[in-house]
Glycosyltransferase
Amino acid sequence: SHNHHDHHVALLSSPGMGHIIPFLQLAKRLLTHQKINITKATLFTISFNSSSSSSKAQKDLLQSAIDDQSLSIDIIHLPPIHISNHNDDDVTIETKIAITMHEAPKLFATAISNMESKPTMIITDYFLSQALPLVKKNKMKVPMYLFVPTNAWVVALGFHTPKLDKEVEGEYHSHGDSPIQIPGCKAMHPSDLFQMMEDRTHRLYREYLLMCEALSLADGIFVNTLEELEPKTFEALRSGKITKVPIYPIGPVIREINNKQNRINDVLDWLDKQEEESVIYVSLGSGYSMSYEQIKEMALGLEQSGQKFVWSLRPPSTKAGNNYHYFTAGEDAETNKNGHSSLQEENLTPESKNGETNSVTKSQQSSDYLPEEFYRIQRNGIVLMDWAPQLEILSHPSIGGFVSHCGWNSIMESVSCGVPIICWPLFAEQMMNASMLEDEEEVGIAIRLNVSMSTKNVASEEIGKAIRKIMDKGDTEGFVIRKRVKELKHFAEKAWSHDHGSSYFALSRIIDLNGAS
Ligand code: UDP
């Protein structure tokens, strides 16, 4: 047993704030856990030979971890991954992800075998599980774990995919509406399927299959979810019918709330002045840029809802989704590829210097890429164009709902704050997330918008209606949803209690599961 040794853990995160935030938090929680003797953590990050530099938000986050004298965290940037000989913009995002899933594990395996003081355990991102066979091949005898920055249903799908691959002919979505079945789990509508399974002829699908096949080499899998959010899925996973690998819920692994530091941002002062649960928060993730059309419908929807709002908005792209979150996450507004300048921050703060409201007028800035409707609604809320203090916003008592793209970190944050969700899923596993969140027999804390498959847009009437439903104290459907999310908030709080918390305890299993040693 390792119990008497001090452990050194090496972690490998996928690129993007949606992975780096929970990975850094996991490292901190391992180092401060009273039942685990891990004394050192080395977090490996991935970069590219591409024009997309890492964001200021990401640099700040990593730097603050290095600066924290109370924790022994090292950050190592792996050598950049070579994407192509041509302009990176010619390579689709799917291809970039596929290359990352293949190349990053190699770089990581090499890096850890060259380390002077070798790690005594490794934790890689679920999507980079191809590292496991490589580490094994290098004869490094360390326990190997995976951390999943999304839910257990996705993990069940991952273990079941090699079987589906053998059994299903043609594309998974070419069999009408007949659902995809994973033993013991919620049935999945083909249109909600994980995006990596969308095109079976694509390299991304082949890498995904290799990733799935490598999952069985893990000594244990830790998922950023709550037992109470997915009881049925955990029962199925424990039954042994899907896998024998032990899988534990350790969520919510989210950032600590930092009310003091983030008071730099006036949005919290503005929220202080609003009524309880009267403001809707809107964010479609750290990297996704809404199209002109999406911004227009969102603005009209907010107007029709009559509610006050806080909107975290990346500068718009010319076509929906060309700023896919996995790589551009958290990039600064100024670096937007379209070359548009972002709105001046001072125009967007709640009370500008002359004491006026936060209205943004067209004449105040040069670009004309935002729709008129966007300017019309400014008096009723706040738009944040740089990195928003999302967790501090969600935890503010004035917030009553969250229009979200259903990135899993956002969901864990919303659950932790007891905020009901309006789902506007876009990519990756977000459609799966939305479908379990809206299902009363599963989670039941959300209303799902009808998102166009091609444009990823939603009609404003629907947005307005959904916001009213979730905020209106008299609405019965809204009442049930609000009540349920508050119950889950309670479970989320308990999960990390140092006495009997289920997630706190589950993470300590990392010491008992040293199968490979
Ligand atoms: N986030 C933030 N400020 C922003 C945008 C995002 O703090 O302006 C954080 C958010 O709280 C969450 C993460 O970035 O922790 C985004 O992760 P998620 O899985 O929700 O979506 P992704 O950005 O990966 O699509």
User: Anything to note?
Assistant: The CA atoms of residues 219 and 515 lie 6 Å apart.
